[in-house]
Specification:
Layout: E1 2-7, E2 13-19, E3 31-38, E4 41-46, E5 58-64, E6 70-76, E7 87-94, E8 97-102, E9 114-120, E10 126-132, E11 142-150, E12 153-159, E13 170-176, E14 183-189, E15 199-207, E16 210-216, E17 224-231, E18 238-247, E19 253-257, E20 260-265, E21 275-281, E22 287-293, E23 307-311, E24 314-320, E25 332-340, E26 345-356, E27 359-366, E28 369-374, E29 382-387
Antiparallel strand pairs: 1-2, 1-26, 2-29, 3-4, 4-5, 5-6, 7-8, 8-9, 9-10, 11-12, 12-13, 13-14, 15-16, 16-17, 17-18, 19-20, 20-21, 21-22, 23-24, 24-25, 25-26, 27-28, 28-29
Length: about 400
């Protein structure tokens, strides 16, 4: 448990940062490649760990005890462990459930990957309760590219093909059957526009009866889209509620919290400074852009928006800082923004900086707790819990 200096547009402050305990010191284990936090529990993916072979992968559960200490309480692996599965590449945590993607293949290929659902029982033990898949004969790209979880609802995407559009991409909603309790597919989404407006399924987020999915063109200066889908509580049917075009990034990032959607565009702006756009749903059900978040001090090729997270009136956005005078980026930071209701504006409060290039690989926030991953091929991965002030 250490203290790290957190600076920003507001006066400097000290924030507590805890490095989660992880015994694997293997370089390139990719611990921290995906993170999720819910209450006093954190979930961290380690897609490169050699559990039963190269890149088999694992995911770890950590819990905070009454002394405010974070301890590992479980290591999750699929019931059938295989090398090259990259289990833990995407993770989601909701209460006593964890959803973990095993995604061996990436875009430009079709693959019947899987997402695994785990549940903690009354004894505290975690058990795999479902292996979620879709019809492998449908050409739509690599399944389990991204996962999201909210209570009794899971969202899983198939990543389409940006090279020639052979695989269009899709997203699926799974829920437990009221009769059997088994998790079943209840909805399937696709993009309403063609590949010229983005290849559907790269990233996805879920909050209650709302879901958002990205569609990037993966070509420079060829903006993509973000789709929002909403479920009608009366009919149970999902429908597309909005599509935002002109989203300029190879890997669009998303965060959804209630009536707000935060979209990261690390390639936006002159010289790839990057930005993050806030969209809001009004009382009529219409979604529209409400704010654009930028760092107080922007930097060329700063990749601001390369990861985003949103909870209440706080937002986290990853990007590089002023050390871009070097031949390569040597320091990535996480910017902390807060909404000022008086000014009706989002304002940068702090910058969380531990001086490492891989810091901020993935980020999540709940209340005043931020969970930040650090994963790369050059060193063992890590994850940090930051108590924001």
């Amino acid at each position: 448990m250490v203290l790290v200096l957190v600076t920003g547009s507001a006066p400097s402050a000290l924030a507590q940062i805890d490095k989660l305990p992880h015994p694997d010191t293997t370089r390139g284990n990719f611990f921290g490649v995906a993170v999720s936090i819910d209450g006093d529990r954190a979930l961290v993916g380690a897609s490169g760990e050699e559990i039963c072979g190269d890149n088999a992968g694992a995911a770890y559960v950590f819990e905070r005890d009454s002394t405010n200490t974070w301890m590992q309480t479980a290591r999750l692996t699929p019931s059938v462990c295989l090398s090259g599965e990259f289990f833990g590449r995407s993770v989601a945590l909701s209460g006593n459930r964890a959803l973990i993607a095993a995604s061996a293949d990436f875009f430009a290929s079709a693959a019947s990957n899987a997402a695994y659902l785990f549940e903690q029982d009354t004894t505290g033990a975690w058990t795999q309760i479902a292996r979620l898949t879709v019809d492998p004969t449908v050409d739509e790209g690599a399944f389990a590219a991204s996962v999201a979880l909210d209570g009794d609802r899971a969202l899983i995407t198939s990543w389409g093909d940006p090279s020639d559009g052979k695989y269009g991409g899709a997203a699926y909603i799974f829920e437990p059957s009221p009769k059997t309790g088994q998790w079943e597919q209840v909805a399937r989404f696709t993009g309403s526009r063609g590949p010229a407006f983005g290849v559907f399924g790269g990233n996805a987020v879920l909050d209650g009866d709302r879901a958002a999915i990205t569609a990037s063109t993966y070509f420079r200066n060829a903006p993509g889209s973000v789709y929002i889908f909403e479920r009608d509580p009366a009919s149970g049917m999902w429908e597309q509620a909005a599509r935002f075009g002109g989203i300029d990034d190879f890997f669009i990032t998303l965060a959804l919290d209630g009536d707000r959607l935060l979209v990261g565009e690390s390639k936006a702006g002159t010289n790839d400074v990057g930005e993050a756009s806030m969209y809001r749903r009004d009382s009529t059900g219409t979604w529209q852009q409400s704010a654009v978040l930028n760092p107080v001090t922007p930097y060329d090729h700063g990749a601001f928006g390369s990861a985003v997270s949103l909870n209440g009136n706080r937002a986290l956005i990853a990007g590089y800082d002023e050390q871009l005078g070097q031949d390569f980026n040597i320091d990535r930071v996480v910017y902390v923004f807060a909404y000022n209701p008086t000014a009706e504006a989002w304002e940068q409060q702090h910058i969380v900086d531990i001086g490492e290039v891989a810091f901020g690989t993935d980020i999540d926030i709940e209340g005043s707790l931020a969970l930040i991953g650090r994963a790369s091929e050059q060193e063992p991965g890590a994850a940090y819990v930051v108590q924001l002030r």
